[in-house]
Design goal:
Blueprint: E1 5-10, H1 13-25, E2 37-40, E3 50-53, H2 55-58, H3 68-74, E4 79-81, H4 85-99, E5 106-110, E6 113-117, H5 122-125, H6 128-143, E7 147-152, H7 155-162, E8 170-172, H8 178-181, H9 195-203, H10 209-213, H11 217-235, E9 252-263, H12 266-287, E10 289-300, E11 305-316, H13 319-333, E12 340-352, H14 368-373, H15 380-394
Parallel strand pairs: 2-4, 7-8
Antiparallel strand pairs: 1-6, 1-7, 2-3, 5-6, 9-12, 10-11, 10-12
Length: 431
């Protein structure tokens, strides 16, 4: 029996979730999905981008990821509402829980989409299109938002199918349907064809997915290396990747932050790096892993970007050591005058479990062995662990480094800004 894979994608997820919440929980009368509306950030803190938009707003040429100011030029009356990530997390979990009732093999691909391996479930649920519509209608009925369902024999084709006409529809894309349904599409709609690849393919005269599917693969490999072979296989519908219910271990960790003001002094920049080291270190210790490579990225006021990395002498998950490496990279990378708008800290070469540690006479005491050799000192790793326990129990602000007191930025930075996790609806007019 062949494979049967579903890809379920929430239509305009953030906007749909916000609209459903306002209607069903706040007694709102206006459906954001039916007006020119978008979910957007805060212009003043330079997080002012469009995160999701309604179908009617899309007609004005508004795109996800563009700035709010650009969107307002296209549609001055655009209704922009703030993001509410705590709500999105709840909606996403409820969405995934419903899918798990139809198959044990559910792979959450992102916050608003998932794959389900439905192979061998025909006798239990019926024909593929029938059960797909059953899932679609149930999500709409119980959760108040709509989804598209793509059906095929592999993940690639199922995902392509779910991107066909929206919203609230079921589409199939089986191998025999590829010539009619997929090959006529513009090449930019193929999975893994980004802007750079798009330009190279156009230079080769490739305009549609069908053009790529019939192109000489050896010529593609000459121009695009292994990526050329990958997208050629995609264009022909080839994909053997399994639906993985258990997420693979992280190969890297990282956090970055947009800064609400231009940073022009090293002391402030290094404090922001410390706040990023705090959040990355907490995640590493939570997962019980250490890393060997630290990298930082700097985006200037003119959006130019530079980055650099270094390999550590020994694997670590200690905040102080991550920070020390980040500062060393920063001082060698920044020119000490160009205003900074964005800083990032990323780590890689992840090591699980206990790792050997090379001791040095010049080390700060940072391990149980150091503590045993140097009585009176507390291992820095143990200090971090205790800080994590306090913060997990009493909240992230229960423990803060003195250096962050009265500073205009968070002491644990990166990821989703804290003010976006929830929304005070008492300050918002819900129509």
């Amino acid at each position: 029996m062949g494979r049967l894979i579903f890809h379920i994608d929430v239509n305009s997820a953030f906007l749909s979730w916000e609209a459903a919440y306002r209607i069903h929980h706040l007694n709102g009368k206006e459906d954001l999905r039916e007006i020119d509306a978008a979910i957007g950030g805060d212009i003043e803190s330079r997080r002012g981008i469009i995160l999701a938009k309604s179908l009617s707003a899309k007609k004005y040429g508004i795109k996800t990821g563009e700035s709010i100011s650009e969107a307002l030029k296209k549609c001055p009356h655009l209704c922009i509402v703030p993001p509410h990530y705590q709500l999105y997390d709840r909606c996403s979990k409820a969405f995934i829980e419903i899918l798990k009732e139809y198959s044990p093999d559910v792979e959450q691909f992102s916050i608003d989409e998932a794959f389900i391996d439905m192979t061998g479930t025909k006798r239990l649920w019926g024909e593929a299109v029938t059960v797909a519509n059953m899932i679609r209608k149930r999500i709409s009925r119980e959760l108040g938002f709509t989804v598209n369902v793509g059906i095929s024999v592999n993940k690639l084709l199922a995902k392509m199918a779910s991107e066909f006409r929206k919203p609230d529809l079921v589409h199939t894309l089986f191998p025999e349907e590829i010539p009619a349904k997929m090959w006529p599409l513009p090449i930019g709609e193929l999975y893994f064809v980004g802007n750079a690849t798009f330009k190279k393919l156009h230079a080769l005269g490739i305009r549609t997915i069908g053009d790529l599917a019939h192109f000489d693969i050896e010529i593609l490999k000459q121009h695009l290396k292994s990526h050329g072979e990958l997208i050629w296989n995609n264009a022909n519908g080839h994909d053997v990747s399994p639906v993985t219910a258990i997420a693979p271990a992280n190969k890297g960790y990282g956090n970055s932050t947009n800064i609400a003001f231009d940073v022009t002094d090293a002391a402030t920049a290094e404090l922001i790096l410390l706040s990023l080291a705090e959040s990355v270190g907490m995640r590493l210790r939570r997962d019980g892993v250490k890393i060997e490579v630290v990298a930082i990225g700097i985006k200037a006021y003119d959006f130019s970007y530079v980055s650099h990395q270094k390999t550590l002498r020994t694997a670590t998950n200690i905040t102080g050591e991550l920070y020390q490496a980040a500062v060393e990279l920063f001082r060698g990378l920044w020119d000490f005058k160009t205003p900074i708008r964005h800083l990032g800290l990323h780590v890689s070469r992840v090591k699980a479990g206990e790792t050997a540690r090379q001791l040095s006479l010049f080390d700060i005491p940072d391990s149980p062995l150091h503590s045993a050799l140097l009585p009176g000192f507390v291992a820095l790793g143990q200090v971090d662990t205790m800080a994590d326990l306090i913060r997990n129990r009493y909240g992230i602000d229960a423990l803060k480094r003195a250096a962050f007191v009265r500073r205009p930025f968070d002491h644990v930075s990166g990821g989703i800004a804290r003010e976006k996790h929830t929304v005070d609806y008492a300050k918002i007019v819900v129509r």
